Each structure stands twice: as structure tokens, then as C-alpha cells.
Amino acid sequence: MITARAAASFDPQGRSVASARLFVRDTLQGWGFADIVDDAVVLTSELVTNAVVHAGTSAEVLCLRTEDGVRVEVADRYPERELPLRPPGDRPYADPDRENGRGLMLCAALATRWGVEYTATHKHVWFRLDLPDRPVGTRSAGPVVPDRLLPLADTRVRVAVLQVDSDDRVSAWNEDAEHVFGHPASKAIGRPLAELAAWPQTPGTGTGIAEALRLSRWEGSYGIRGADGRVIPVYGSHLRVRDAHGDPSIVCLLVHDDERALLQTPVRAPAAEGGQLTEARPADPFEVFIGSPAPDDLDGLLQRTVERARDMLDADAAFLLLATDDETELEVRATTGLPSTRQRFARVPVEAGASRYGSARMPAVHEDLTAVPGAVPLLDGTGMRSVVTVPLKVEGRLTGSLGVAAENPGRYSNAEALRLQFAADRIALAVESARLGELERLRRGSLSFLVEASDLLAGTLDRDQTLALMAQMTVPTLATWCAVYTIADQSSDPYLSYVLHEDEERIDGLKALLSRVSPPEPVREAGARTWREAATAVGGETVVLPLLARNRVIGMLTLGKPSGEHFRQEILELADDLSRRAALALDNARLYSERTAISRSLQRSLLPPGSPAIPGMEVEVIYRAAGEGNEVGGDFYDVFPIRDGAYGFAIGDVCGTGPEAAAVTGLARHALRLLAREGLGGPAVLERLNAAILDEGARSRFLTLLYGELHPREDGSALMKVVCAGHPLPLRLRPDGEVVPAAEPQPLLGVMDDLELYEETVTLEPGDVLLCVTDGVTERREGSRMLGDDGLTEVLTTCTGLTAGAVAARVLRAVERFAAEPASDDMAILAFRVPQPRTGD
């Protein structure tokens, strides 16, 4: 009875043979048929070789599972190439010394049954392998070994069982998981596994956790962040399954990394290439590793290297370190069997002592580390007693160091060192090639990161937003937490301006801890340096990078990682590049803020200090300057007392907008006040102002101006004397809704030397409104439409009975609604109204 089936097709290419072997191995191991996997792989390899190499067609492989064995069929599209039937006692199917035909010999020798079937288009060669008879419950077994060689485990072994749904979120969390990691099930279920896992890879390189969760099986080391924030090294075995409804999920079995023997699959030697039978011989685990397809990422290659090195010398621990570019330090990149404090990216010196045994450039054997404390800094406090280390060299250059260690003294001699050196020599070039590939990917990722960071920083001139961007770009990409200190000037102490942690609930606590520590000392030298005071207070590794801009220190960027984690040199170099860009952006934001503050202060000095209260009159002013950050533009207004019972008012428009127009605005407003208080009439005031504008020469701007004097009367009316020099005419609104111009147009200022201006008199009766505006109101546009004088007159007609404030507000609202786009010109509205006497007064 067939209980499961799996099928795959392979192109007529040489590499398809290896792919077919891998397909059959994964399928049978997934079905639990480990006892017959090797025989099935050998037979499949030979039959697929016949199809894709000798027959030159594609191959179709079908695996059928039964209760007591498996049947594998290999079909090709060359039915004319028949297989001869061999009568009993006849010659064998092939000569063992010939290249072809050996697949049939192997089928006859290894398979329980085999055969050939033909169709019009295909030839099927099949074989069946029965499961061996064995005691009930036995799947695999190892030899009897002395108790002292058995793997170590806690008195109470705990296996954390997690189930992860198709969205990569935790859906089940057993009691052992709660005990090992500290998270109760109620807090863990529903969270993405990526939030809990500290995946052993550099961002942008290697297999990520998302990819690993898509594989049918996965096994290896990584970390889980406990409830206290510390990373707990674990060894995991993942199996992707599906439920009765067909929905996939991943079952994860996790144990402490030093108890990996509970879950680790025994290493099996691969079948010989092409399925050829070879003479049986003891397999060296490192040779098995070299002969198998190597992982395509550096982290996977290094981890497999230390695991095979440990197994090869029957060690308790193994480690591999890579040299920095200057060959002065070694960086921990992979470990197995060491405590969690020996995490990746910790650094040790290449030269740890004066003797040859203190240099990582030479093989070294230490029979008892207690006799030479500090000889191998990485192993201090780990309980390891004997160790052998060998260098990894490429073309005579030190690229790394490989070591294995044991808890018992005297375990290793020169013979083991030679064996390990032989293995290191074989793997050194592959490691260096993978390292260079990782560096290239990291540099490309760094360049992309810096380009994006520069775009974001260039997109704002706000200081607070720049600080937030700096922190958000570093956490969690470069560090677990970040703090930014700023320095206002050279005499000021650094100030803690911004703090960010990847866990938002820890931000306040982190800020409190840093507040109790003296700020880092500002240093001009570029590059990261260790900040021990903060590391002691917060825990973990802490580095400080100066924020240098325009040859001065404007702050410090502080990055931190939790205990047991370390910064990679490449990450620190990337952070240094980022700090330079961030410092310039922060200084630009500072300069912009200072310039804006100065500009606004100067602009406010050009505005009238305030409108005086005029007895018997309502006065309302609305002013809008065009341009970001401008409070004053080319349009201006003023209402001021001249003498008792007389008030001056003006509304004008300087050609252009911005600071140049504002300068002429200041000249006009101050000159009007001064000249009017000298007792000059309206025409004389404007003629002298015209001369002052012309005296500015190339800096002059022509100016339209409505100037007048206001004299309230005892009968409730108001006498106005006005001069309209090229300005939009003032409009008078009568109580009956009639709107008429209140003046005649005259020449504008700043163009001609000799002006002949005259003054006009207007008497406002109770209920009358006088509206004065600049051309920013009348020339408001929407496409080809313009509000114009007629549109303003129509709006004013609807303002009968309104106060001066309501009239000005209605006009502004009409202007804003006339077009969807914001106004591009300065705008001023000045409204006067003579109130009507109240009924009964």
C-alpha cells in the first residue's frame, strides 16, 4: 500500500545527478527511512547518470513510500535504448571496468527487487528497498562508549518546543520554553519568531531566518532573546509539517547549545561521485565536509568548520577567528561548545605573548592552560584546560585561526596539531573566498544604506527631526540602542538630546541610566572608541563616535549592544561614515535654525508695533507674507497717531517679494511716520518718500502706496484725506450695499523724480466701510481666472452690516477659496468702519 509519494524532473545536465541525489536523500530522510537512504542515493545516482549523461534526455524520479520500504523509479525519454534481459548463468550486464552499465549491477546487488518497464515515450527503471528487520522501536544506534565520553547535559534536561505558523509567528510554546527563555506562553504566542531570534548572520548575507523557515528541514545554532534581554545560544532542529487542512507550520525543537548532542543528526559520509562503489575506509569528518557541497554563505561555512573540527579531534569546544585587514587582531566568527559570553565579533590580539606559542601565526599546543594563564584569551573562564590552535593562511598571509579545546588537560599533542593544520590548509582558501564575497556584499549594502541615509538627512532642516533620523537609522540596523549628545558651543557640556532602544519599553530606563553617567569626553579624532563608563552602567559593549562638522565637534553618537554581543569592524566603519553625514546634516539644521531666528527677529522689527485705538472707529488689519519663513514681504501697512485727533494710515506694495522687498518696506514705513509727524501733508510726504527711494539707486524698488490721514468727528463721522499713488483704489461700502471707489489713481513712487500728487477728501458716515487692499488680493489667480477689482467689489457687497474685523475676514476667506494653490504673493487687508449709533442712544 502506497502511503506517500514524491516526484521531481531533472534537465539533461551533469549537475542534475547531484540534484537528484539530494532530492532522494531529503525525501527518504523526511519519511524516516534513514537506514536505506545511502543505498537509494547510490542507485538513483547511477540511473539518473544513465538518463541525463548517456541517454541525453531529461530524467523523472518518483519515490513511493510503503509500510515496509520504498520504491524509486527513474524514467528517461529514450525507450529505443533497450536493456538486455540476462538469462541465468549468462554474463553480467556490464563489465565492472567500463564506464557504463554499472547501474544495473548495483541494482542487482543492492535492491530487494528491480525491473524495467517500457512505454511508447519512456523507459522506466525501478528498484525497491525493504526496511531491514530490527528490534521494535530501534531507528539507529551507536557504539557503547565509556561514561566519561558521553555528552554533558543538565540534571533536568529541557527541550523547548515551538510551533511557528505560516506567517512566521509563534503559535505554540511549551513549559520548557517558558523555563529556558523566561517568556510565558501568553507573551510569546503571536510574536514573530524573528523578534525572539538572534540569527547568526550579517544583514544582507547568508540564509536569513525567513528563508530557513521555508526549508523542509533545518538544523543549526542561533540565539533566542530571553525575557531579560540576553541572548541564549541554542541548537535547533526545525521540521516543516502540514495539518489535516493542508496548512503548513514549523515545529522547532530547541536545547541549550552545549547540549546539542540531544538533537544533532549524526554525520554521514556522502556517496561517491557518480554512484561508483569505492573501497570502504574510515572517513575523516573534515574530509567529509570538504567533499560535500559547501554552504554558500560565510557564516554557514565557518559554523560547519568548527563543528567538524570539534568532531574530528573529539573536542569539547571549537572556535574560528578571522584576522582584521591589518592582521593585528582576530575577530571571533564561529564557536561551538563555549559559553554564551564568547559571542561572535569579540576581538583578541594576534600576538598574545612573546613566545612562538603566544602568536596566532604559528600552530600551538597547550596541554594545560592553567599553567599559562592568558595564553588563549578567548578561553579565559570557560573551564577549558587543553587546546590546539593553528593558523589559516592564504599565500603566506594570516587570514584566521582555528582551534579546538577540551576540559581535560593533556588531550592534544603535535600529532593532533598536524591533523588540524592539514584541515585548516584545505579550508583556508574557501574561507577567504567566502569572506571576500561577504565583504563585497556588505560594502554594496553599506553603500545603499549610506545613499538612503543621505537622502533622508538631506530631506529635513529641522534639528529635532534630524536627531530622530540619526537614531532610527542606527537602531536596530547597526546597534541595539543609540544615544545622541549635542554640544551647543565650545564652552558648553555635552547634552543628552535623544535616546532610542529597539525595545521601546526600555527607552526611559536607558535614558535614566545614561543621565547618571558623565557624558563622554568630546574628542576630535574620527572613529569609534570604547566608552567604559556607559558599558558598566548599561551593560554590554558601548562605543562613541564624534559628530564632526566644519572642523569642530558638535556632538557624539553613542551606540550600544547587550552583554555577550560585539560590534563588527565593518559595522563600526559604516557607523563612522554615517556619523560624518549625520553631523553635517545636524550642523546644517543648526545653521538654518539660527538663520531663521535672525531673519524672523529682523522681520518682526519691520512690522508695526501695533494699531492704535481710534475713538469712534473700527480698524482691522490682516497681513500674509509669501515664502517659507517670511513674516514680512513686499506688501506692508501701518496705522499710527500723528497728533491729537489725527491718525495716519498707509498700505503699500513694493515690487517683488522676500528680503529685498522687505528692506524697502522698512524704509517706507519709517519714513512715512517721520515725515507725517513733521506736519507735512499727504502729497509732500509721498514726494519726499519718492526721493528717498530713488536715492537707493540699484537697490531701489518702485512702490505703490495708499496714504491717508484720519480725523474722527464729534458727530460720529470721520474725515479722511487720501493720496493713491499707483495703488489699487480704496473701496467704500455704504449701508445700502453700494460700493464705490474712494479715490482717483495717481503715479506710483520710485520711478520719476518730479511727481505732482494731490490729496482727496472722503467723509465716512456711520455704517460706512473703507476697504484698502494690496494687489495680492485683486490678482489672486486660478488658471486663467483672476479675482480682480470686480470680484473684490462683489465680495464687499455682501459685507453690509458687518464689523471691520468680519469684513476683513470675509475678504481673506474669499481670496483663499478662489484657488486651490497657496497664495504666491504677499497680501495685506486694511478695513475701517464707522459704527452706527445704537438704537436708543
Automatic annotation (TrEMBL):
Presence of keyword Transmembrane: no
PPM-type phosphatase domain mapped to chain residues: 617-834
UniProt keyword annotations, A-Z: Hydrolase
Top-level taxon of the source organism: Bacteria
Protein name: SpoIIE family protein phosphatase
SUPFAM superfamilies, per the entry: GAF domain-like, PP2C-like, PYP-like sensor domain (PAS domain)
Segments forming domain GAF: 297-441, 445-596
Stored Pfam families: GAF_2, GAF_3, HATPase_c_2, PAS_4, SpoIIE
UniProt source species: Streptomyces toxytricini
InterPro entries recorded: Bact_Sigma-Reg, GAF, GAF-like_dom_sf, HATPase_C_sf, HATPase_dom, PAS, PAS-like_dom_sf, PAS_4
Family matches, as CDD domains: HATPase_RsbW-like (cd16936), PAS (cd00130)
